[in-house]
Structures are given as C-alpha cells and as structure tokens.
Design brief:
7% strand, 660 residues, 66% helix, Rossmann fold
Length: 660
C-alpha cells in the first residue's frame, strides 16, 4: 500500500510540474519537449529527488516511443518515398551516414569503444522531427524549397532509427571483437520480422479492420488499434529487437488502409501523453552537475553538433544543386539533435552499451541544441537572406518578372491563390463563363502539370504583396483564396487591402473558426465548407418538399447575410471543443425552470441575462416552443429556456436563473 501511495505521489508531482512547465513554454511559443525535459531534470534523482528513476516509470515511458514510431509508420508509404527519393535517399542518406561515421571516428579517436562510438554517432545524426515539422508548419514553410528538403531528410532519419534500434540490443555486452556475428544475426532477425509482419498485415489487418469498423463501436476500434500496435511491439521484443520496430511496422501496414486517419486520431492521445512521460524520464537521466564538470566536452559536443551537422547539410544540399540560401536554410532547420537520439541513448544506457559519463555529455549537448533549434528555425529566412541577399533578391525578382510578364495582358481577371482541387474547380467555372483568371501555387509538380495542360498557373507565394502585384492585383476584378490555411489567408487579405480597398476577396475555410478574424481583416466573403454543406443539403431538401425556389433562395441568402448565425447556434452535446483556435464557442443550452427557481415569476428583462453575455433564443411551454420572447415575458415553473452564448456565460446564466 505504501508503494502505491509513493507511486501516486510521484505521478502527481510529474503532472503538476509538467502542466506548469508546458504552460510557461507555450507562452513563449517554445516546444513542449523542452518543458518535459526540464521537469525530469528538476524533480528527478539528479535534481530535487522528488521522483525516483524507477523501472516501472521507464517501461511506461518506452510506450511513448512505441506510439511515436507507430504514427510515423502511418505516414510512411512507398509512393511518398519514391516521390521524394532525391531528398530522402540522397540528401538524407548521405547526412545520416556521414554524420554517424564522422562522429564515431571522432569518439573512437577520443578513446571510446566502437559500440559506444557507433550508437552516439547515430544519436547525433538524428534531428527533431517534432520541433522541425511543427515550427515549419506554423511558419508556412513546409512547402517551401528548404521545407521540402528538410522533410525529406527527416523522413530518412525516422527510417534510420529502425536499424539503430536493431543494433543496440546486439551491441549490448559486445566489445570490438566478435561484434559482426551478433550484428549480422540481429539484422537477419530484423529482416525476418519485417517480412513476416508485412505479410501478416497485408493478409490479415484490412479484413480485421473492416469487421471492426462494421461494428460501429469507437471503443472496439480503439482497442483493436492498441491490440495491433502492442502485439507487433511485443513480437519484436520477444525476438530480441526493439518494441518500437514492431510499432513502426504495424503503422506502415495500416498506412495503406482507408482507416489511417481515424487510427491516427485515436492513437494520438496515448502517444502525446506517453511521449511526454518519455521525455521526462530522459530529463531524469540528465545530471546538471555534468555541465560544470565536463563543460568543455559538452560545449564541444553541442557546438560540433549544430555547426558540424549544419555545415554537412549545407554542403550536401549544394552538391544536390540547391541554391546557397536554400541550402543554408535547410542546414539551420536540421542542425540539432532530436527525440530519437534520446531514445537511442536511453536504450543504450540501460543496455550498458554507452557509459554514464558519455551519455550525460551527449544528452546535455542534444538538449542544448534543441533549446537553440526554435530560434534558428524561426529566423532561418532572415539569416539566409542577410548572408545571401543578392541571390534571394535576384531569384524573387526573376520570379516576380516572370509572373508580371505572364499577367501583363490581363485585366478584369480573377487571381486564384492556391490551385488545388477547390482552386481548379473555381477555374473551370470561370473558364466556362468566359472570365479570365491567373492562379498562383507553391506545389512545383502541380504548377508544371497545369502549365503543360495550358492553364495560366505560375509558381509564386501569394502571401507576398509583390507577387500579387505582379499577378495584376491593380487590374484584377477579384481575389479568391482557395486553400484551407487561415494564417496564410489572413496574410493574403491584409496584403490585398494594403493596395486595393475596393477589391472583392473571397476566402475558403473548413469551418467558422476564423470567420470573424478574416472578415475583420477585410475579406468580402468567407465560405466555411461545413456550413455551406448544410445550406446546400437543406436547399435540396426544401426543393424536394415543394418549397418555392424563390423562398429557398431568400432563406439561404438571409443565413449568409447574417454571417451563418442560424447555423452556428446548435446543441454541442459531447462534441469536443477545439483547443487553441478562434472557433465560435457559442452554443444552445436548454435550462428547465423547476418550482422554487429564482427566475420563476420574474420578467426576462429583470434578470438582465444580456449583461451576462447570453440571449434567450426561445421559451418552451408544454409542448410548444415559441419565437424569441419579449423582455416583459413573465417566466413560469416548468418553462424551458433555450439560451445562446459561450459555455462560461451559459453556466453563469443558468446559476442566475436557478439560484439568483
């Protein structure tokens, strides 16, 4: 019983510390992984000693890596690898191989044994997928040239983790002599497991998930995902390999099914929580006393990691014919250690492949590099443009001139920002009606194919005002933003409004989360897909029911003119509320008035519900629901008030109605 209380106390300490650390870092827009690491350092055995480094905690934390590899497997597919083969196999393969070899030789020269040198070299070769992908997405740079190169390298690094995870158990307890035999046996077992699991997945998993999905039970579906993931992890563990290898293979098997997105949504909560716990346990391994004792080694390792890996990525990108600015931005994005480096070092430390001192030095260096990474990624463009200003200005000017040359004969045209499926559909209708258009897109393959087909499409970033001007913004009749990217859409709207106050700007969004922000920025019309789908559905229904076309059109027009207010007020039920968005939070809420309620016998205006931010949408008496009531309506016991407002306002209003 005492051990149970100690475990609960440790979990409570970890939760309180993690919430405080992650909340503080989010205010500065820094990655949560740094908060988890800090928690482990502070409350772990090398810090305040509040939480011991118990085997049970480490086992649970390893599941975080298992689920992370599973979700990466979900993203991996052979077609994607083939499409990005130059960046993945060329740049990524060369970077991992050279970094591992160079680091291993340097450590060997320092006196480290070969097993330790190889594992540390592999750990230093890996960058942080979590930090890079998240920050590039927030900065709208995933589809840029350096973003695509970075994603390709990260994809290869994620795949390179698998052989390293196979090698670490084989290296355990092995010296330099006799290492090749266990390594060859481990690789043979790994190949056998890969082939076996892929074959089983091909023949068994799709029929299994068809049956599970037909039951229409979310609990059964989630349980099946967990069963498949952990079964594959258990199988590879029983074969003497890493459980994460099995999880990756399970994810890769399921990536080809139609349930991939649902599986990823179901597994994400487990992954995020357990991965956070994994980073906490890594933080527990860090000894703050190492920095003053081995500051020279830590400084050399951190500097060598950031500068050395960055220089290597830059050189390899230049060999791949990337421009100097693009190569430098790729290097700045990838010049840090990553979470898989922690996983390798933690596994190697527990298997006694890496010594305690070496692990501490390398772990500290990786943490320092990851702390520097958000700054380097955020300002990668400014740094590159300052160092290679001539090249950047020249290329952008050349792109601007090419767009201006193509659009110089256009007037009264429509500028389409984004030529994906929606943009192409808009273009087809404009073409049929005889309206000229000019499209901008950042997907080079799409631009190439569309131009070969005769479409007026050019490669260009529509968030830049000079590109819009080159596309004839001053002569255009309208601008349509067709991609579902609210931050980029806001940038486009503001750019257009700086030059043209009168120009209609239509923006497509997925829902109404950013409707008011876009309208406040100057968007003429915002078209939320979910709400427009509701309007189209009900329009067809009313027409089938015999409602005159003119009345249907009038109803739909009224909803749009009222900014979709009618469609935004609905009963949410158990539907989760989006976090971290500007989504409309208002909803409908029914409040029955029992005998003795404070509001019974009082008039609506005397309750001042509007001051609480709530309005009464309707009152139901008996079986009848009336229209919005007047202020002099006197409430009775048994009335049901239908309120409209934000959740916290509805809670206050309900308390006011019932208790006063």
């Amino acid at each position: 019983m005492e051990q149970t209380h100690d475990t609960l106390a440790a979990i409570l300490i970890l939760l309180v510390s993690a919430v405080a650390a992650v909340a503080a870092l989010r205010r500065f827009h820094l990655p949560a992984v740094l908060g988890y690491l800090a928690v482990g350092v502070v409350v772990g055995p090398h810090g305040l000693g509040w939480v011991p480094d118990a085997p049970e905690t480490r086992v649970l934390a390893e599941f975080g890596v298992v689920f992370l590899l599973f979700t990466i497997g979900l993203e991996f597919s052979l077609p994607r690898l083939v499409a990005m083969r130059a960046a993945v196999l060329g740049l990524g393969g060369a970077q991992v191989a050279i970094t591992t070899a160079a680091s291993a030789w340097a450590l060997r020269a320092w006196g480290a044994p070969w097993p330790e040198a190889v594992v540390v070299g592999g750990a230093l070769a890996l960058s942080s997928t979590a930090i890079v992908m998240k920050q590039l997405a927030e900065q709208l740079e995933l589809n840029s040239r350096h973003g695509r190169l970075a994603v390709g390298v990260l994809l290869f690094q994620d795949l390179a983790v698998i052989p390293f995870l196979i090698l670490v158990p084989a290296l355990a307890g092995q010296g330099t002599d006799g290492m090749l035999v266990p390594l060859a046996w481990a690789l043979a077992k790994g190949l056998l497991v890969v082939v076996g699991l892929l074959a089983a997945g091909h023949w068994l998993l799709r029929p299994l998930f068809h049956e599970v999905a037909s039951a229409r039970s979310p609990e059964l579906f989630t349980l099946t995902v967990l069963l498949v993931t952990l079964s594959a992890a258990w199988l590879t563990h029983r074969m003497g390999l890493s459980p994460a290898l099995g999880a990756f293979l399970a994810g890769m098997m399921l990536s080809e099914t139609e349930y991939r997105h649902q599986i990823e949504a179901d597994i994400r909560p487990f992954r995020d929580v357990l991965l956070g716990l994994f980073f906490v346990t890594v933080g527990m391994l860090l000894d703050p006393r190492v920095l003053p004792q081995h500051w020279l080694a830590v400084t050399a390792a951190a500097t060598g990691l950031v500068a050395g890996k960055g220089a290597l990525v830059y050189a390899l990108a230049r060999l791949g014919r990337a421009e100097p600015g693009v190569a430098l931005r790729t290097a700045l994005v990838l010049g840090q250690g990553g979470e898989f480096g922690f996983a390798l070092l933690a596994l190697a430390l527990h298997r006694d492949v890496v010594g305690e001192t070496a692990a501490q030095v390398v772990l500290t260096a990786i943490v320092l590099s990851m702390a520097l990474a958000p700054i380097l990624i955020r300002y990668n463009g400014r740094i590159a443009k300052r160092l290679f200003r001539g090249g950047y200005v020249g290329r952008r000017e050349a792109s601007r001139r090419a767009i201006a040359e193509a659009a110089k004969g256009l007037s009264g045209h429509v500028i389409i920002c984004g030529f994906g499926r929606v943009g192409q559909n808009v273009a087809r209708f404009l073409d049929r009606e005889g309206f000229p258009y000019f499209a901008l897109d950042l997907d080079p393959d799409r631009v190439r194919e569309a131009r070969e087909a005769g479409e007026p499409v050019h490669y260009g970033d529509s968030t830049h005002l000079e590109i819009l001007e080159a596309a004839g913004l001053g002569r255009a009749r309208a601008v349509v933003v067709t991609y579902d990217d609210p931050p980029a859409a806001l940038t486009v709207v503001r750019a257009v409004r700086r030059l043209r106050e009168d120009l209609p700007v239509l923006v497509r969004t997925r829902d109404d989360a950013d409707l008011e922000r876009l309208q406040a920025a100057g968007a003429t019309e915002v078209v939320p897909e979910t709400l427009e789908a509701s309007l189209m559905l009900v329009s067809h229904l009313l027409l089938l029911l015999g409602v005159p076309v003119s009345r249907v059109v009038r109803r739909v027009r009224g909803v749009r003119e009222d900014r979709y207010r009618l469609l935004r007020s609905f009963f949410h039920g158990q539907e989760p509320e989006p976090l971290g968005t500007g989504a409309f939070r208002e909803r409908l809420h029914a409040v029955p008035l029992p005998e003795g309620a404070h509001a019974v016998g009082r008039r609506l205006r005397d309750l001042a519900l509007d001051e609480a931010g709530v309005e009464v949408a309707a009152i139901r008496r008996g079986e009848r629901r009336g229209p919005p009531p007047r202020g002099d309506t006197r409430l009775r016991a048994g009335d049901v008030l239908v309120l409209y407002g934000a959740p916290e306002d509805l809670e206050r209003a309900e308390a006011l109605l019932l208790k006063g």
